[in-house]
């Protein structure tokens, strides 16, 4: 089982949103990382049959993406922004979507109860959707995407607006689900990918700038990340020279966590890069190349 | 199962409650109690207004030697010329002419030259000069002259203040009648018709002087016993009683069905997008044809269900009437007329609303339907005026089954055409929805770019 994307391009009018994307996504959790506007949602929508490629080939489990009816049978999709008729209860909303998924009556009822248990919404099943918290809504989103027990689960920016506890709970849930299926997770938060995925791709301005194991992504930042302490009034000048990732105020001094390709100075302390650091390094290198 | 879900979604929405409210109001104002009144009227009690004008309950068997059997429409040239001229003189003297260009009242005031032209028409018809026209004797026209009533010497007022007029027994003018004392047309009926056409062109469309209106207002004649018996037999045997009520019921309901369902349809179809649910639905397995068809059928059921229920208010008393009198009724008459007359209207309103909403993702269908409904209402007479594209079949009468027989083929063609058109619109909706579902035809950006200005202005205006 695999998602195979070859030379995929997507244009909106004259704007080229996805540029010659080629990816092979195997079973397991796969991260799609990129800043806002990088083209992640467009790619997700194409895989969810809600948009069509301008050129290129996409196959899911050997089925051409143009065979939408067949593709819809094997995918589950959680869009970035979704809602439900506000007065519908959790159960009836799942039941409605289950009917649209064309699950037979007896299977549907059983499946809904299983899913409610799995996403820990059993006690909320009679609550109206509008009364659910953000985390509950996301878990509902996962439940509805799993109604047809899909081989491919496509999840677009699932943790937007969730507090850290909900995020953790959500990723634990995804990890449980990642057995015998592909979970494609799109996010702009690199640490989310590190916590859950073994492989990832990074998109920037519609182009794949990285594809591979998470460890490989982490290594990209090796020897490029430093910390140093400077005076507060030197900060602006420092920012113009280096890509500052974070700063910590310390009296009149400022401790800077930054990226640099240049040879280190003696006052710089080399750091073990986090996934965020490597990701930032990757993006800034790509942008420099483009410029 | 999906059908039930969609039906529930519609029926438990606020807009549906409004729809039911409007439907109930319209039904209560127009049709509620008509059947019961006709039944009790046949037993000598008060009858409905429409039957009152035509001589009594349609269910009352005429008896020989009765004083009056009611009125019927008949082209009696003398009466039409008398009534039309009476009305024209009244309006000329007040220089205030009533017109109904789109079924709504509009007063027309003529200039001096136009008034002179009208005066010449009156002079030609009556043979009187301007002075005489300005000072007509009180009894120049009959006290009750079609829809014109003169509160002159012929009217008597009772103690409780009610006026009584004797109808139809005025002396008919003879060759010796003095045309300056009593109306005697000085032109032939054909010439009169030409003069009325001229008056209509001066005053404007929808005046009182079109032949249709002249016939309706002044072409009334007393029915004979045989004619009344014939009408009664048509009701009892041809219409089997219930068809007469079913037609009137459908006449009132069709005006509601010609417009209100579009609000339901538009809000229902925009609901997915407004609730950001469209992507969840679109990526599910269900086929587009199945989804659109089931939603369409659910909408149609939601629209016709209350109408079918309301028809029982008439049907149940009729069943009781049948049991009491032994007169056979057609129990399925309401159902037949709902399917034959109302279903095609409901189908076309629902399918066109659905198609336009899916196509544009905007509530444009409401505007389109309102314009269509308004034009259709304005151009269609209350009875016997079905054309090939008439949206709402009108028959604002309990009697008059001959009008239906006369137009039967046209009505069938009209209804069939709307059914075919709505099936085409459903098929087009499937095609468009399927394209949009797959990411094509998404020109919402275009619409927002070019028409968003109006939406923003409107929103800003509301927020103020």
From TrEMBL, chain A:
Its keywords, alphabetically, are: ATP-binding, Nucleotide-binding, Transport
Q: Which PROSITE patterns match?
A: ABC_TRANSPORTER_1 (PS00211), ABC_TRANSPORTER_2 (PS50893)
Annotated ABC transporter domain residues: 3-230
A Pfam family it matches:
ABC_tran
Family annotation (InterPro entries): AAA+_ATPase, ABC_transporter-like_ATP-bd, ABC_transporter-like_CS, P-loop_NTPase
The UniProt similarity line reads: Belongs to the ABC transporter superfamily.
- Report a single Gene Ontology molecular function: ATP binding
- Name of the featured protein: ABC transporter, ATP-binding protein
Species per Swiss-Prot/TrEMBL record? [Ruminococcus] torques ATCC 27756
Q: Cite the source lineage.
A: Bacteria, Bacillati, Bacillota, Clostridia, Lachnospirales
Automatic annotation (TrEMBL), chain B:
Q: Which UniProt keywords apply?
A: Membrane, Transmembrane, Transmembrane helix
Does the keyword section mention Transmembrane helix? Answer: yes
Q: Where are the transmembrane segments?
A: 7-27, 252-270, 291-319, 325-343, 355-375, 416-433
UniProt key word Transmembrane helix: yes
Superkingdom, taxonomy of origin? Bacteria
The organism's lineage is:
Bacteria, Bacillati, Bacillota, Clostridia, Lachnospirales
Quote the protein name from its UniProt record: Uncharacterized protein
């Amino acid at each position: 089982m695999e998602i195979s994307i070859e030379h995929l391009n997507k244009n909106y009018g004259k704007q080229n949103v996805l540029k010659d994307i080629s990816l092979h996504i195997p079973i397991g959790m796969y991260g799609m990382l990129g800043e806002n506007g990088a083209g992640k949602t467009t790619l997700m929508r194409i895989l969810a049959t809600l948009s069509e490629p301008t050129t290129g080939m996409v196959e899911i489990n050997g089925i051409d993406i143009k065979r939408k009816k067949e593709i819809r049978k094997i995918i589950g999709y959680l869009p970035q922004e979704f809602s439900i008729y506000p007065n519908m209860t959790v159960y009836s909303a799942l039941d409605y979507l289950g009917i649209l998924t064309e699950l037979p009556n007896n299977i549907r009822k059983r499946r809904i109860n299983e899913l409610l248990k799995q996403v820990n919404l059993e006690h909320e099943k009679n609550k109206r959707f509008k009364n659910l918290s953000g985390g509950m809504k996301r878990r509902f989103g996962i439940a509805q995407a799993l109604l047809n027990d899909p081989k491919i689960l496509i999840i677009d920016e699932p943790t937007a607006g969730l507090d850290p506890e909900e995020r953790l709970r959500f990723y634990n849930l995804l990890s449980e689900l990642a057995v015998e299926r592909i979970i494609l997770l799109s996010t702009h938060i690199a640490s989310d990918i590190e916590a859950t995925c073994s492989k990832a791709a990074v998109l920037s301005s519609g182009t794949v700038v990285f594809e591979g194991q998470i460890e490989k992504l982490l290594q990209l930042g090796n020897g490029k990340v430093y910390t140093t302490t400077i005076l507060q009034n030197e900060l602006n000048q420092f920012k113009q020279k280096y890509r500052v990732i974070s700063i910590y105020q310390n009296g009149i001094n400022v401790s800077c966590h930054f990226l640099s390709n240049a040879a280190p100075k003696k006052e710089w302390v080399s750091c073990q890069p986090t996934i965020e650091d490597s990701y930032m390094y990757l993006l800034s290198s790509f942008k420099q190349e483009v410029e | 199962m999906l059908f039930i879900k969609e039906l529930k979604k519609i029926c438990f929405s606020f807009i549906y409650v409004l729809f039911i409210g409007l439907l109930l109001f319209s039904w209560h104002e127009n049709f509620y109690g008509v059947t019961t009144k006709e039944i009790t009227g046949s037993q000598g009690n008060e009858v409905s207004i429409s039957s009152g004008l035509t001589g009594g309950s349609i269910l009352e068997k005429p008896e020989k030697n009765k004083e009056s059997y009611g009125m019927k429409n008949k082209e009696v040239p003398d009466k039409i010329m008398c009534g039309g001229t009476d009305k024209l003189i009244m309006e000329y003297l007040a220089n205030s002419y009533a017109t109904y260009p789109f079924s709504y009242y509009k007063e027309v005031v003529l200039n001096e030259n136009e008034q002179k032209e009208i005066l010449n028409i009156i002079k030609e018809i009556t043979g009187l000069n301007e002075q005489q026209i300005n000072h007509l004797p009180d009894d120049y026209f009959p006290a009750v002259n079609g829809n014109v009533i003169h509160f002159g010497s012929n009217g008597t007022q009772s103690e409780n203040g009610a006026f009584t007029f004797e109808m139809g027994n005025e002396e008919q003018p003879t060759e010796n009648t003095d045309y300056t004392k009593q109306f005697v047309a000085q032109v032939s009926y054909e010439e009169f018709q030409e003069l009325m056409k001229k008056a209509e062109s001066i005053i404007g469309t929808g005046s009182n002087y079109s032949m249709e209106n002249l016939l309706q207002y002044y072409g009334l004649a007393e029915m004979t016993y045989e004619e009344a018996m014939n009408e009664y037999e048509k009701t009892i045997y041809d219409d089997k009683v219930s068809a007469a009520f079913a037609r009137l019921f459908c006449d009132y309901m069709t005006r509601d069905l010609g417009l209100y369902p579009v609000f339901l349809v538009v809000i229902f179809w925009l609901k997915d997008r407004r609730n950001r649910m469209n992507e969840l639905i679109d990526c599910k397995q269900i086929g587009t044809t199945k989804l659109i068809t089931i939603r369409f059928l659910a909408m149609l059921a939601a629209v016709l269900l209350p109408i079918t229920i309301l028809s029982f208010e008439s049907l149940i008393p009729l069943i009781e009437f049948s049991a009491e009198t032994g007169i056979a009724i057609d129990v399925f008459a309401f159902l037949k007329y709902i399917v034959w007359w109302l279903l095609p209207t409901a189908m076309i309103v629902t399918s066109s609303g659905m198609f336009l909403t899916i196509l544009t993702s905007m509530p444009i269908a409401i505007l389109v339907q309102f314009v269509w409904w308004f034009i259709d209402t304005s151009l269609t007479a209350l009875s016997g005026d079905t054309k090939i594209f008439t949206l709402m079949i009108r028959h604002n009468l309990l009697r008059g089954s001959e009008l239906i027989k006369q137009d039967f083929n046209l009505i069938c063609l009209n209804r069939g055409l709307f059914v075919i058109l709505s099936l085409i619109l459903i098929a087009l909706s499937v095609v468009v929805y399927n394209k949009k579902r797959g990411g094509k035809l998404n020109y919402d950006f275009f619409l927002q770019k070019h028409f968003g200005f109006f939406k923003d202005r409107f929103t800003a205006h509301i927020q103020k």
